[in-house]
Amino acid sequence: MEAARKIETLVDSLRDLSPTRVRFSSFDEHVSENDGQRSSWITLHPSALDMFDKIMSDAEGKRIIMFLDYDGTLSLITEDHDNAYITDEMREVVKEVALNFKTAIISGRSTDKVQSFVKLTGIYYAGSHGMDIKGPTNIDQSDQEAMFQPANDYLPMIDEVVNILREKTRSIPGATVEHNKFCLTVHFRQVDEKGWPPLAEQVKSVLTDYPKLRLTEGKKVLELRPSIKWDKGKALEFLLNSFGIAESKDVLPVYIGDDRTDEDAFKVLRERGQGLGIVVSESPKETNASYSLQDPSQVKEFLKRLVKWKKQTLGEESDE
């Protein structure tokens, strides 16, 4: 009974993270209540586009460091996770951002997979939720070198569990397992909601034989990752230290992300009292971010305005 209750709790959590239907008897009632909730939420987490001038005013005299999530931030969430390609226009915008600001992409994907999607050099990539951090070498910006991999000892276990996980989920239509080097991601975006409980049960059962792994949840994903104290927030702190600016008061880290895992980075920035978290979400949700954007198209617009602001600032400085 206890095991069944835990699975039920897990599935309820997945529904909250990955809603598939409106749970209101009246559509009008839903729209009215939803509008009210969003209005209150926006008051707490205003649009980064609407507040752009204020954000740039706060950034005056400071060095902006950009941290970006990938899925749902730079690319749209897709039914097939292998097709979550960044658009050519977004790639050009990110390229411009990286030319004007030190930039890192922190993702749950493997570093190699994110790099294959983004196809840009001169950027720091932190895959597997920050457990695989690589950056451009000092000699050649087009080359990448490993900077930190805190879960290296877990690689044999991860390679072993991926086959077990694929076998356990094979009977559930639509479920797929993605090997993200230091973590394993079970995608259920194409799984009927009736299949969520048995899928959750199968994934959770792996922990019995592999207690050194832990289970986390995200948007239409379940993940198994090493039980170490490391997340996107720790990766952000590591990179700031690597840049030699962790203690600098003249730095403004900006992190943009859409998923629960990005909250660790938002929390770090809030606790530091230095930096801005921007959550990407079309609907209200609990977050440690200061500002919000609705979708990748708004992220692109924000980044374009950021580059324009930087170039104008440099132009003004050269005129003086």
Task: Summarize, please.
With 320 residues, the protein is an alpha/beta fold. Helices cover 42% and strands 19% of the residues.
Describe the structure.
- Helices cover 42% and strands 19% of the residues.
- It has 320 residues and is α/β, with parallel strands linked by helices.
- Strands 5-4-3-2-1-10-11-12 form an eight-stranded mixed beta sheet, with helices on both faces. Strands 6-7-9-8 form a four-stranded antiparallel beta sheet.
- Residues 21-32 have low confidence and may be disordered.
Low-confidence stretches: 21-32
Helix vs. strand class:
alpha/beta
* Helix amount: 40-55%
Number of strands: 12
Q: What is the N-to-C succession of helices and strands?
A: HHHEHEHEEEHEEHEEHEHEEH
Number of separate helices: 10
Strand order of the largest sheet: 5-4-3-2-1-10-11-12
Secondary structure: elements and pairs:
Blueprint: H1 2-17, H2 27-44, H3 52-58, E1 63-68, H4 88-100, E2 102-106, H5 111-118, E3 124-127, E4 132-136, E5 144-148, H6 155-169, E6 176-179, E7 184-187, H7 196-209, E8 213-218, E9 221-226, H8 232-242, E10 251-257, H9 263-272, E11 276-280, E12 291-293, H10 296-319
Parallel strand pairs: 1-2, 1-10, 2-3, 10-11, 11-12
Antiparallel strand pairs: 3-4, 4-5, 6-7, 7-9, 8-9
Helix pairs in contact: 1-7, 4-10, 6-7, 8-9
Labels describing this entry:
320 residues; alpha/beta; eight-stranded mixed beta sheet; four-stranded antiparallel beta sheet
